[in-house]
Amino acid sequence: MAVEYLCKVCRGVLNVKTSIILSATKLNGSKRGLIYLNPELGNYTTTSHPTFKIEEGEEYVYNCPICHSQLNSLKYNHLVRILMIDNDNKEYSVYFSGIGGEKCTYKMRGTKVEKKGPDAMKYDRYFEVPEEDRKYL
Ligand SMILES: [Zn+2]
Fold first, then answer.
1. 117 Cα to the center of ligand 1, angstroms
2. Residue 39: CB partners within 8 Å, gap ≥ 6?
3. Can you give 66-108 as a three-state secondary structure string?
4. What would the pLDDT profile of 9-54 be if each residue is shown by its tens digit?
């Protein structure tokens, strides 16, 4: 079984062919479009239509293209959360930055966090939370 990415709300599958497909809207703006993310963790190549480009340093709200729920984390400011199911059918939370140009990914399951990307230090503090408090996040 291949790795799959799911919406954290409706659990609809977000990856089609070789991309994770999300809808994005510029924060405090009206520009919106589809964005294709590379499903390989640590690969920050994105694809979008020429009329909709993610701007460096701008924050975006990401939505599930299936149920339209907002995927930005309510607790981890500036991060976006989706679910990942790996080859062993294990479920992880995958966080990435909603700010254009920031390269960081956190793959979390229980107390284990795998960090990737040159900007991973930026939100390190979010993941130093004691396990018993995690359920509130
Ligand atoms: Zn959804």
1. 26
2. 3, 5, 15, 18, 19, 20
3. CCCCECECCCCCCEEEEEEECCCCCEEEEEEECECCCCCEEEE
4. 999 999 999 999 999 999 988 899 999 999 999 999 999 999 999 9
Interacting residues of 58 by C-beta distance below 8 A, sequence separation 6+: 26, 27, 29, 99, 100
What is the Å distance from ligand 1's center to 38 Cα?
19
pTM listed for this prediction: 0.91
Distance of CA 47 to the CA centre of its chain: 15
Calpha distance 58→99 (Å, rounded):
5
Q: How far away, in angstroms, is 84 Cα from ligand 1 center?
A: 13
* Centroid of ligand 1 to alpha carbon of 16 (angstroms): 14
Say if strands 19-26 and 15-16 run parallel, antiparallel, or are unpaired: antiparallel
How far is 135 from 137, CA to CA, in rounded Å? Answer: 5
Cβ neighbours of residue 40 under 8 Å, at least 6 residues apart? Answer: none
